[in-house]
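Could you please consider the sequence and fold appended to this message?
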Amino acid sequence: MTKKMKKKIMIIHGPNLNLLGTREPEIYGKMSLREINSRLRTLAGKRNVSLKIAQTNSEGSIIDLLHKAASWADGVILNPGAYTHYSWAIYDAINACGLRVIEVHLTNIHAREEFRHRSVIAPACLGQIAGFGWRSYVLALEALLEHE
């Protein structure tokens, strides 16, 4: 019987997500980024998944993380924050890295301000999960693990 290989997933939290728990809790919830990461690590442990988690406020750093992930990761969960709506550079990086990427948002971007309705990144991604708070990350992790 062959032992199943441990999946390796990169999670990239974009700009301002380091402020979760205190940043507009009526919109983004009261859970901190540390708490979200802890819950993801717990789930990953139960699913035999290795996680690497990073947060950056810089578009260039997101691109660098995607490039590096291409050499080791099986997939990426990306919350690009406001870069969602205008970063063609992140779109290009997703296409270039060849990884399955799921775009994640805590809020339903389609029910918010009109400028948030369009994601220029989504067409390069396997899918988009939005509107389920911190559980959006959990749903993305499950989707990556189940998608072949």
